[in-house]
Design brief:
Elements: H1 19-34, H2 37-54
Helix pairs in contact: 1-2
Length: about 55
């Protein structure tokens, strides 16, 4: 059924990241700020694995 202009359908809200996502993102940003490219790349891999296995 198409949405009517007077009653538009909104996209579902985006859920907040889980605690492990937040921890990995924070560690990635800290490594990036410190210029530690090797650690930053490791956190990218960790996020990919976490996303694949947990979400």
């Amino acid at each position: 059924m198409p949405a009517h202009p007077e009653n538009p359908q909104l996209p579902p809200p985006v859920p907040a990241p889980c605690a492990e996502c937040r921890r990995i993102k924070d560690a990635f940003h800290a490594a990036t700020r410190a210029g530690n490219r090797t650690a930053a790349q490791g956190w990218i891999v960790a996020m990919g694995r976490h996303q694949r296995w947990m979400h």
